[in-house]
Amino acid sequence: MGTCQNANGTAKCSCQNNYSGDSCQLLKDFCTGTTNCLYQGMPNTGGTCTNLPAGGFNCACQTGFSGGTCQTKLTRCSTLSCGSVAMCNEEIGCYCPEGKVLTENKVCKIPSDDFDIYFDTLIGEEGASTTAVIPGDPENSDLSFMMWVKFNKGQDETEDAVLLRIRDFIEIKNNTITFMNKTSSHSVRFEYYGNPERIDDGDWNFIAVSWNRNGKTEITVKGLLLPHDSSVAFKLPKVFEVEIGKRFGGRLSQVKFWNSSITNLDMLQLSSNRNHKPAGATLIHGWYNYKMNKGAMKKVMTQIKNDAVCDVPACSPLDKIKPKIKACPVDHEQVSSSRVFSYQLPAISSMFQDFNESQSMISHVRDSSFTWGDYSLLFVAADDNGNTAMCLSKLYVKYNADCPKPRSPPSLTIGYCSGSRDICNLRCPGNQVLSIPAPKYKMCSKLGVYTPLKPRQKFALPSCGNKTETQIQIEVSLMFSLAVVCDESFEAPLKRNLMTDFKDKVFQNWDNVCSNSDCSNVEINSKCVSGKQQITVSMKIKNLRNGITKKSGSNTYTAREVFRVLIFEDTVFDVNDVAGAKLLNDQVVITDIVSCPEGNMVIEGNCVVCSRGTFYNSTSQNCEYCPVGTYGDEEELTSCESCGTGKTTLGVGNYEISACVAECPVGQFLNGSVCSLCQKHFYQDMAGQDYCLPCPLGKKTSGVGSNSSSQCFDDCKEGTELKSDGKCVECPRGYYRSFSEDVCTPCAPGMTTAGNATASVLGCVIKICYNGTFRNSSNVCVPCPVGEYQPMDLQEKCMKCPVNYTTESDGTSYRSDCKFYCPVGYEVLAAANETCRSCPRGQYKNNTDVFSMCSVCPSGFTTKGMKTVNIDECSIKICYNGTFRNSSNVCVPCPVGEYQPMNLQEKCMKCPVNYTTESDGKNNKTDCIFYCPAGYEVLAAANETCRSCPRGQYKNNTNVFSKCSACPSGNTTESMKTTSINDCSINICSSGQEIGSSGGCVDCEIDYYQSVDVPTSKDKCKTCPSSTGTKQKMSNSSSDCLPVCSRGQFYNSTSSACEACPKGTWNNGNFTMKFEGCTVCRVNYTTTGPGMISEDNCTLLDCSPGSYISGSNCLPCDFGTYQPNRHQAICNACGPDLNTSATGATSEKDCQIFCPAGKEGQTECNPCKEGYAKSSAGISTCTECTGNYTSNDQHTACDKLFCDMGFYFHQNSCIPCSKGYYKADRGNMICTRCPDGFLTTNEASVSPNDCSDPYCIPGKYINSTGQCDDCMIGYYKSATGNDNCTACSRNSTTPSRGSTLASNCSIVVCEAGEKRNSSTNTCMKCPVGYYQPDRGQSDCKQCSAMQTTEQEGTVNQADCVPICQQGEEFNSTDKTCGKCALGYYKSAIGNSEPCTKCPDGKTTLVLGSVSSGACNLTDCLPGTYRLSGAGCEKCPVGTFQDQKSQTSCKMCPANKDTTETTGATSESYCIVSCEDGTEYDRTSGNCSECPKDFYTNRTISQYCIKCPSGFITYGSKSSRCYPQPATVTTAAPAIRQQTFIFTLTYRMNLDCNVPAALNAALANIRVRIIQRLIALASRFANLCRKANVNECFVSLRVQLNQCGGARRKKRAAEPSDLDVKVDIPDVSSTVTDNEEPSKVLQTETMLKEDLDTNKPEYQPEGAVLSNSKFEGKVVTCEVGSIPASNNKTCVICVAGSYHDTAMGTCKNCSRNFYQDQVGQTSCKSCPGSVKMFTLSEGSITQSQCVSECNTNPNYCKNGGTCNSNDVTIWCTCKERYTGPRCEDKAEFTSNTPYIIGGAVGGLAAIMVIALVIVCLIRCLRRSKESKYPPKDPMDYGYDYHDPLYDNRSKKGVMSYARMNPTFNYDDGSFYDTRNRMYAQEDNNSAYRWQEAQGDYDL
Question: How far apart are CA 217 and CA 1591, in angstroms?
Answer without folding.
Answer: 90
